[in-house]
Amino acid sequence: MKQEINIKKVVDYWKTEAERNYKIAEFLYEGKKYSDCLFFCHLMLEKILKGLVVKQTKTHAPYIHELDTLAIKINFDLFR
Known about the structure:
Elements: H1 7-30, H2 34-57, H3 67-73
Helix pairs in contact: 1-2, 2-3
């Protein structure tokens, strides 16, 4: 039997985590830690996409880190 998930709660989780990663990225950028900043920007984008996956598919986001694969799941063209 498929378990129901609380879509709003899960989407809010991904949003909160993305916002947290953005703040860390800003801090790192201000400290001229550009490669570390870029890593946290990737994490932020990943979490935004995962929130959108949950919102559109009504299921948990997959345990992956590939932005392009997540974008495909929501029919979002990253290269528009």
